[in-house]
Amino acid sequence: MKLCLLGPGYPYRGGIAHYTTLLARELRARGHEVMFLGFSRQYPRWLYPGQTDQDPSRVPLVDEYVPVLDSLNPLSWIATARRVRQAQAELLIIPWWTSFWTPQFFTVAKLVRRAGGARVVFICHNVVEHETNGLKQFCTRQVLRLGDYFLVHSSEDHRQLERLNPGAPIFQAVHPSYEALIPMRFNQDEARERLGVQGKALLFFGFVRPYKGLEFAVRALPFILKKHEVTLLVAGEFWSEKKSILGLIAELGLERHVLIIDRYIPNEDIGLYFGAADLLLLPYVSATQSGIAQIAYALGLPVVATEVGGFVDVVKPGKTGYLVEPQSAQALAEAVIDFYDHQRGGDFIKEIRVIRSSFTWEPIVKIIENLV
Description:
Elements: E1 2-6, H1 15-29, E2 33-41, E3 66-70, H2 74-86, E4 91-96, H3 102-115, E5 119-124, H4 134-144, E6 149-152, H5 155-164, E7 170-172, H6 188-195, E8 200-205, H7 214-225, E9 230-235, H8 242-251, E10 258-261, H9 267-276, E11 279-282, H10 291-298, E12 303-306, H11 311-314, E13 321-324, H12 329-341, H13 345-355, H14 362-371
Parallel strand pairs: 1-2, 1-4, 2-3, 4-5, 5-6, 6-7, 8-9, 8-11, 9-10, 11-12, 12-13
Helix pairs in contact: 2-3, 3-4, 6-9, 7-12
């Protein structure tokens, strides 16, 4: 098949760039001709909440990539559509995750459809973005109406897309593993020694944003510390909330129990933080799906997640971790205490080793193949 894939890849960082790059790699491995059309400029600096959108990894995830689309240059949007037509692609595959890309993706998809060539497939990482409003939902609806087919990774996204675009042909597949993203692994003793952590450790990983619920992980610590001495590792760049989180830590007297690494974690260090931890905490207030749980499974780490979004599709309570009530520090603490009290780590890890082979790219590739 001739396919065009439009989205971010290296040198840009983050889960969407990793996903798009791995998808291009998997499709090519199956013998398909893939033109990976990427961004020459992603976000304008004044709009991006992080320090930079460039990947600092010494061992980056790289695949063949044509940087053609400039988010601020409409002529490049037209040029991108022209490249799709010239490639005589059967499908144009576009990831969707934020309404920032409304004018760019709308233009490309509209021109491609008008030319009557490739059909448009949207892979919806977030049908409705996390900090949404009426205007963002309107923009999302206008773009997604140009899709011929849709792929989602959670039941929640499936429901949201059905409400937003009734009758749309929607296909669902489990979010695949990011195992190829992790070039280095560390055993627990080595990881803790390198980080200066002693004893039990919990991990909160990824960009810190309000919907991810770090506040509730911090508030859970006093309950946990009544029974178990633990350290909470917060490994990821703060996009907001840092002042309030630091204030909460000081208010609760938790300074020596929280280790904050306020930076983007490069690929070669992912295994270090996951290796040091006993449990991954995903105390999200809202969510659709998250690749972080798949990283944990790839590294054999159990998960405590809230009952929101795609976590209910991925976390198997009592087998690979816990599902708890959202916005409840008490429920989060009870799960952690149960894990340590009953020494469930060994059984959870055995189950994770059994099921993680199901988080492959095969179902996604087959869906794309069947569309043609």
